[in-house]
Design a protein that fits this description.
about 180 residues; 5 helices; alpha/beta; Rossmann fold
Length: about 180
């Protein structure tokens, strides 16, 4: 972080220096813990656990402290994802909406459609693994793993559909 901040909003200088074109800051937020022992219903119905909700509040507070500034949060329709998105939206004071494009299986082809649908300069997407890790890796060339409740920020060049991984935080780093 060249200027001492974890993220500079789009209207401020880019952390990689002058001359770098900023098309979109794309935050990838993986849903929080939703592991329920003896879960009998469909996997698609699993909500966040009590611990998952608590952890997501800590993560969202951290994101607010470092001045994460998505213009909009777009989330998967699955309960564990939209619960995560609602918690983030509450702390970041931003609107949140669901989109079926972010269902499990999300990939680069879905991302292209998201870019067309949501032309914001800064967007947060909330969804699932392994889709998010695979998508971030395809955009950036980075080898990584996005933990439950983890968040990554990618600077995306919309023309080339390539990106730079600016940062990646697992939830243990974000706890207060």
């Amino acid at each position: 972080m060249a200027n001492g901040t974890a993220h500079a909003p789009p209207e401020v200088a880019h952390p990689l220096g002058t001359g770098h074109k900023i098309d979109m800051y794309l935050y990838f937020l993986r849903h929080g813990e939703a592991d329920w022992p003896n879960w009998k219903k469909s996997d698609d119905e699993r909500p966040l656990t009590k611990r998952g909700k608590k952890e997501m509040h800590e993560v969202a507070k951290f994101l607010a402290r470092i001045k994460a500034r998505p213009a909009l949060i777009v989330t998967s329709l699955l309960p564990r994802a939209w619960q995560t998105a609602e918690i983030a939206a509450e702390h970041l004071k931003v609107k949140c909406q669901t989109d079926k494009l972010l269902a499990p299986g999300f990939g680069l082809n879905h991302l292209k459609r998201l870019f067309e649908k949501y032309p914001e300069k800064s967007l947060m997407v909330v969804g699932h693994e392994p889709s998010f890790t695979e998508t971030i890796s395809a955009l950036t060339g980075a080898t990584l793993k996005l933990s439950k409740a983890g968040v990554a920020l990618v600077d995306v060049d919309l023309a080339s559909r390539n990106g730079k991984l600016l940062w990646l935080f697992p939830p243990k780093i974000m706890k207060t």
